[in-house]
Specification:
The chain is an alpha+beta fold and 450 residues long. The protein is built from ten helices and 17 strands. One of its GO terms (biological process) is proteolysis.
């Protein structure tokens, strides 16, 4: 692991080198006739170990480099990229980008984000926590996780445990004179298990992902959680077709919020491919519900002081009092819509759904009798129409208590009705994502089974 350790020690020097390279290429692009230019450069380093049934399956060390360049000749755009940072490759990439730009059509929306929107403050977001774990230690940790899960009676097999360490350095620079540096780490642990009884086999898993390895749950806790989830699915049943309240577990609920983000993203809107077109300023959720983007959360999975175009990020409401306050846009989609960038080129930054007062047990009581969804399958969601239909598994709940596991069902509704029909949001927030939400209780969905 000496290479990984040295990346930690030299991270600032590596960032300086990437920044100097980016600025030099921008100068050369301007000399070649480009009116504007932007560069993204990165170095990602990692270790990934997978073990299964007490044996090592895979060990992978990675060190990936990326360099992307976009040039503008007026409003003609050309982009090219390379994974090789040597001078000849960089020059070839520049030549290619310029050649592409000269042959493309003019696009009135093309160009860098506005200069006055560039970030000028770069607060410390506590995202850099290199994990000094070597291959032997990673294997031992994976085996410890798997052993904890397999120790549970009823667990018959394992799909394996994984240990991943990752750290990334990146620079974004453009011809406005903006140079932004970022360094971040992301580490994860996972385990998938199989249980079997007279009715057949069931599989489930659990994982944890963190910025700092000090924030991991224990190997024992992760193994126990994976085993408990797997064993709880034994003797699953199907349901008859019905309409009922549905509670989405936190890790599934964030997918609902992800569908909202897709529907209010600039790309969907300027293509007129969203059921929430022209809905800014309109009520789409209950009046008590608030969703806030908070890009500067320490150790946040989506934290950043600038977006993919260098535009400064800022805390702002997406939903306030149930009303859609704004869209989610970079500069290109904003220009297509006659609006301004929201600092979301490259995506959303830490979307926080304001939690309610009830923990998971409390949310089950609020559900009363209905369906708890812990897994969804398939791609049956249309951002254009809002139609939602996906395979699902979970538990049937009666009088606030889990009665039995269910599988091979389909849940269906329209996202417009689902968002309007949110009854409650739990306090059981899942911290493993840039979308932070507790469980979400919906008033009603159609459940199709037998």
């Amino acid at each position: 692991m000496s290479d990984l350790a040295s990346t930690q020690d030299r991270s600032h020097q590596e960032l300086d080198r990437l920044a100097e390279l980016a600025e030099e290429v921008i100068r050369r692009a301007r000399a070649a006739g480009a009116s504007q230019a932007e560069v993204s450069a990165s170095i990602d380093t990692g270790l990934s170990v997978n073990v299964r049934l007490g044996e090592v399956e895979t060990v992978e060390h990675s060190r990936d480099r990326g360099f992307g360049l976009t040039v503008y000749f007026g409003q003609r755009k050309g982009s090219a990229s390379t994974a090789d940072l040597n001078p000849d490759s960089i020059q070839a990439t520049l030549d290619q980008a310029c050649a592409i730009a000269r042959f493309t059509e003019e696009d009135p929306a093309a160009g860098l984000a506005d200069a006055e929107r560039m970030a000028t403050a770069f607060p410390e977001l506590d995202l850099w926590h290199p994990w000094q774990i070597d291959t032997t230690q990673a294997i031992a940790l994976g085996l410890e996780i798997e052993d904890a899960g397999r120790a549970h009676a009823g667990i018959s097999n394992s799909d394996g445990a994984g240990v991943q360490m990752g750290q990334g350095l990146s620079v974004y620079a453009n011809s406005h004179g903006f140079v932004g540096r970022e360094r971040a780490t992301r580490h994860s642990l996972s385990l998938a298990l199989i249980a079997e009884d007279e009715n057949g086999m069931q599989r489930d898993y659990w994982y944890d992902t963190v910025r700092s390895a000090n924030d991991f749950i224990s190997a024992r806790s992760l193994g126990d959680k994976a085993a408990e989830r797997t064993l709880s699915r034994l003797r699953s049943q199907r349901l008859s077709t019905r309409q009922c309240p549905v509670l989405f577990a936190p890790e599934i609920a964030r997918g609902l919020i992800g569908h909202l983000v897709s529907a209010v993203s600039g790309g969907s809107l300027y293509r007129r491919a969203s059921f929430l077109l022209d809905h800014a300023g309109k009520q789409i959720m209950p009046a008590w519900l608030n969703i806030m983007e908070q890009p500067l959360l320490p150790r946040g999975h989506g934290s950043a002081s600038f977006d993919a175009e260098g535009v400064a990020t800022r805390a702002s409401a997406l939903i306030e009092g149930g009303v859609l306050q704004r869209y989610v846009m970079g500069s290109y989609s904003a220009r297509k819509l006659g609006l301004s960038s929201t600092g979301n080129a490259g995506g959303i930054h830490n979307l926080v759904v304001a939690p309610g007062q009830d923990d998971f047990a409390g949310m089950l009581k609020r559900l009363g009798t209905g369906l708890l969804v812990t897994e969804v399958m398939g791609q049956g969601v249309s951002t254009m129409t809002g139609d939602y239909s996906r395979g699902a598994a979970g538990f049937w709940v009666e009088n606030g208590q889990i009665a039995y596991p269910v599988e091979e069902i389909t849940i269906a509704a329209n996202l417009r009705d689902m968002f309007a029909g949110i009854v409650a949001v739990g306090a059981d927030v899942d911290p493993r994502s840039h979308i932070l939400t507790g469980s979400i209780l919906l008033e009603r969905m159609t459940v199709a089974g037998e």
